[in-house]
Amino acid sequence: MLKKWIIGMFTLIVGTIILIVTFILLILSMKQNPQSTTSEIVKPRNALPIITEKRGITRINGHIIVNKQYGLPQTYKPGENKAARYKINQLLHKAEKEHINLKYISGYRSYDDQKQVVETYTQKDGKQTTQSYTASPGHSEHQTGLAFDVGTDVPMKDFHKDFEKSEESKWLSQHAADYGFIIRYPKGQSQQTGYAYEPWHLRYVGHQLANIITEEDTNLESYYHLNHELK
User: Name one GO molecular function term (predicted).
Assistant: First the structure.
């Protein structure tokens, strides 16, 4: 009887220890890999996307969509997305290890921040040029907290023209999807996205969608059948 009791207690103790260790490992894993507040839902094959709108924020299959057609209210201030920031830091660290001179330039910008950016560029480059590469307040992806601009310390005469030809840009186009990012405004697709090619502008959409969009050499608007030409 005593032997059975000892065996039973031993089994109970071992089981409890295993449960505690498993719980601790789960907590550590969650800290090392923060979960995204954006959905990993992508478009089902041969199916139209599901568009929802709530409080002025439009989502397509769970992903916030922001462009010249779909905007965000001035009151929308989510701050920087933690998962997206974690991934951009990983990307930049990987670039540094491979001797690629990529640097963080900007991330989250509020409606009012974007308004100031537009005013500054308009004074410098004029309204028409500014509109080709700078979003109006409420229509900037930076307001989502999911977009980042990167750059380089490599000397360039005209960053907007020269970055495309750099080793940094080539590396970025090859590795962005590995970290859940897409080049949001790809080359030759301005009629669909509404903006000129910006090889430095990254949008976090999660690994699954990033890989699909990159492999298909497309953009969010085309992938989700938003077939309005945005000019």
Answer: carboxypeptidase activity
